[in-house]
Structure formats: structure tokens, C-alpha cells
TrEMBL record:
It holds the Pfam family FAD_binding_3. SUPFAM superfamilies: FAD/NAD(P)-binding domain. Residues 14-359 form the FAD-binding domain. Keywords: Oxidoreductase. Signal peptide: none annotated. This is NAD(P)/FAD-dependent oxidoreductase. The keyword Oxidoreductase applies. InterPro entries: FAD-bd, FAD/NAD-bd_sf, PheA/TfdB_FAD_monoxygenase. Residues 368-392 are annotated as: Disordered. It comes from the Bacteria.
Length: 416
């Protein structure tokens, strides 16, 4: 049931409260609801109505597709997406360095590819499913301020406005999954630390309708292009091509990077296009590497950006958040049936994945693309060539980059 939040409506208790209807909260809510639990979902905005032109996460890795397939939404997501079964490492000066084909891991997963689709497509698909379920109440324009837990019960305070002075209503449930984003009010209310770093450079993301496949023969749908001065990621989505560039911290005014002439300069440096590039969307954002000190306090479980942030190089942020959601939901379902083992291991497992795997891999990706030392750049390129040429090494690399060869696989794929 889809509802607008109304603080005059008497609150109805539920088995589980899910805070946030991004990809993470949506996945958790659907998994719990399909297993029969009563779920209240609170979304601060309009559920699933974000702009598709806003360039957010768009890569779904194989283990994520397996989770979504088990929830019955994979087919609909595929209808909105683009299958990308290869990716490349390139060098600005040398061109193609290494080409990887995910067919090498076809024996390891039902989905030996990445699916490129804007995250909002998944949110809309799941939102529509949730709206049909009688055991789900989905509240829009509902601002959760805090969560408390004591033994057998949790209480969230919800207001109909972001205004701190707006009246709040208390909703009770046995569990809370906090998927309320990087600025998580629940994480703040529980006084959970969020240590880490903010990168000195900002990132510029630009989308264009110009087809780079016509300008660069043999280019893959996903490309990591190294350069000591201006590395980038270039990938294709169903709607357009997207380029991500770093903005050096020594640039006097990062906002000048949004100047149309400057954007044209960056794109023309990738591949000359005499007619100029039409720009569909552009924005600048800061990038963080942070992992919360706690992923669970009693009956409140943190998931997704509320629990960890990482740079986008490798497409692991949304995916690891969805894996959090799957494990959190499964842990609650098991605890409801009397088995708390998975609940007790949730924090250790998911925090270890975020801290020891996702954080490390994404940081390595950034360092490799921006390496300045010529000898080290040559060593890295030679290593990538050898890896791509050796079937055994290539498979190991693909399992790691696709998030199959980590504790994520055990924490998200083997939850029963």
C-alpha cells in the first residue's frame, strides 16, 4: 500500500521497519514482505520517482542479479538494462591494454555479465511490487529522525517534514533496517562513528548521447582508462554514454569543470567529434571511503550507504549495499524462526566485506588509474596484459571484480 505520510493518522505497528527506499531498502523490504512479515517502509521523498537523468549507480554485478532473480524482479530489470559481458583497461597513450570477457565465469554464476541499468529502475520495479502487497505500508514524504531499540522492540520517530520542529509520530516494530543513506539520521541517533577519508579530488560525471563505439573501434561497454594527468571511466548505459573524470584539488574553482567548453575539452580529448558532444547531464560530487564502527545495535541493522561509502570505481557501492540488505533480511527471518546465528554474524560479515574487500578494491582501482610513475605504470599494464592472456589468471581476476570471489559471495548468495 502506497501512502503519503500523515502525522494525524494513528500509527500501525509492524514486524519490521525499513527506512529508505533506495535499492538497498527496497530489496530488504521485498525480501521480508514476500516471506510474510508486516513491513513499514519510510521514504523521505517520493518513492521511486527520482530522475533517471541523474547519474547514480548503474552497474549490477552477477551476485546481485542472483539475489534479485530470487526475488522475482530480475526479468523486469533486464528489460530496462543493457547486458555488458566485456570490459577493458585502456591507457590514454597506449590504447587498449587488456580485454576481459565475463564468459570466463559462466560456470560460476547464472549471470556471467554486468547489467547496466539506472538504479532508479530497480527502485520503481520493487516499489510497484510492494504497493500490491497487503502486508506492506509504504510511506512517502516520511522523515525518520531516530531509532531506539530495547530488547524485544524498536521505536522510530517519523515526521512529515525535514523541519526539526515538525511533530513526530512513534512507530513500533520488532526490527529496523536503516537504509537511510550516507547522512543516516539513524546512525547519528545511535551515535555510531563513521571513520574514513574524503578524497582530495572531486569527481565530474558527464552523460552524452554520442556513441563512443562509433568513434573508438573495438571499445567495450565499460572502460577504465589510466592517465597520470586525467584518468577516467567510460561506460555505456541504456540511455547514453557516461564519462567520469577526477577534478584535481589544485584547480582554483572546481565548479568551472561544469563549464560547457571545459566539458567539451574533456570529451574531445577522449575521441574527436567535430560536431561537438551533446551533454545530457553533468554534475560534480565528492567521494568518500568510510565504514561505520557498528553495523548493528540490538534490533537495528545498518545497510548500504548508512553503513559504508566507497568510490565508484568498480561499481561496488550499490551492489554491496544490496548484499547487505539480503543478509539483513535473511538474518531477521531466521531470528523470527528462533535461529539467531545469522543475526549474530551480520555485523562481522558485512563490516569485513566493506572494510577489507570493497574499500580495498575500489581504492586500488583509483590508485592504478592515476599512477604517475612511468616504471610502475608499465609494470601495471604488463601485469594486466598477462592476466588477460592467461585463462586461469583472467578467471580469478573476473571473480574478484564481479564480487563473486569474496566474502560477499558467502554473505549474500548462501544465506539459507
Amino acid at each position: 500500500m502506497l501512502l503519503g505520510f500523515n502525522d494525524s493518522r494513528p500509527p500501525e505497528d509492524s514486524d519490521v521497519t525499513v527506512v529508505g527506499l533506495g535499492p538497498v531498502g527496497a530489496t530488504a523490504a521485498l525480501k521480508l514482505a514476500l516471506r510474510g512479515l508486516r513491513v513499514n517502509v519510510f521514504e523521505a521523498g517520493l518513492a521511486g520517482d527520482g530522475e533517471l537523468g541523474e547519474s547514480r549507480a548503474s552497474t549490477f554485478h552477477p551476485p546481485t542479479l542472483e539475489i534479485l532473480d530470487e526475488l522475482g524482479v530480475s526479468e523486469a530489470l533486464h528489460e530496462t538494462g543493457l547486458v555488458s559481458d566485456t570490459y577493458q583497461y585502456r591507457d590514454r597513450a597506449e590504447g587498449l591494454v587488456a580485454h576481459f570477457d565475463l564468459a570466463e565465469i559462466a560456470e560460476d554464476t547464472r549471470f556471467p555479465y554486468r547489467l547496466q541499468s539506472e538504479q532508479q529502475n530497480l527502485v520503481r520495479i520493487i516499489r510497484d511490487r510492494l504497493a500490491e502487497l497487503p502486508n506492506v505500508r509504504l510511506f512517502q514524504n516520511a522523515h525518520v529522525r531516530s531509532a531506539e531499540t530495547d530488547g524485544e522492540e524498536t521505536v522510530v520517530k517519523v515526521a512529515g517534514s525535514a523541519d526539526p520542529g515538525a511533530p513526530a509520530v512513534e512507530y513500533r516494530s520488532r526490527w529496523v533496517i536503516a537504509a537511510d543513506g550516507a547522512h543516516s539520521p539513524i546512525r547519528h541517533a545511535l551515535d555510531i562513528g563513521f571513520p574514513g577519508i574524503t578524497y582530495p579530488e572531486q569527481f565530474l560525471v558527464v552523460s552524452t548521447n554520442v556513441d563512443f563505439a562509433e568513434l573508438i573501434p573495438g571499445i567495450a561497454s565499460v572502460n577504465y582508462i589510466s592517465d597520470p594527468r586525467e584518468w577516467l571511466v567510460l561506460l555505456r548505459t541504456p540511455l547514453h554514454w557516461r564519462a567520469l573524470f577526477p577534478i584535481s584539488p589544485d584547480e582554483q574553482d572546481a565548479a568551472t569543470a561544469l563549464d560547457p567548453d571545459e566539458i567539451q575539452r574533456r570529451l574531445q580529448a577522449i575521441a574527436p567529434h567535430p560536431d561537438g558532444y551533446d551533454i545530457v547531464h553533468s554534475r560534480i560530487y565528492r567521494v568518500h571511503q568510510r565504514v561505520a564502527d557498528r553495523f548493528r545495535v540490538g534490533r537495528v541493522l545498518l545497510a548500504g550507504d548508512a553503513a559504508h561509502l566507497n568510490n565508484p570505481l568498480g561499481g561496488m557501492g550499490m551492489n554491496s549495499g544490496i548484499h547487505d540488505a539480503a543478509m539483513a533480511a535473511e538474518a531477521i527471518l531466521a531470528a523470527e524462526a528462533g535461529d539467531t546465528a545469522l543475526l549474530e554474524s551480520y555485523e562481522e560479515t558485512r563490516r569485513s566485506v566493506a572494510h577489507d574487500y570493497v574499500r580495498v578494491v575500489t581504492h586500488e582501482n583509483r590508485d592504478m588509474l592515476r599512477e604517475e610513475d612511468p616504471a610502475e605504470r608499465k609494470r601495471q599494464n604488463d601485469h594486466m596484459r598477462r592476466t588477460a592472456a592467461d585463462p586461469e589468471l583472467a578467471r580469478a581476476h573476473l571473480l574478484r571484480s564481479s564480487m563473486l570471489a569474496s566474502r560477499i559471495a558467502r554473505g549474500a548468495r548462501a544465506l539459507t
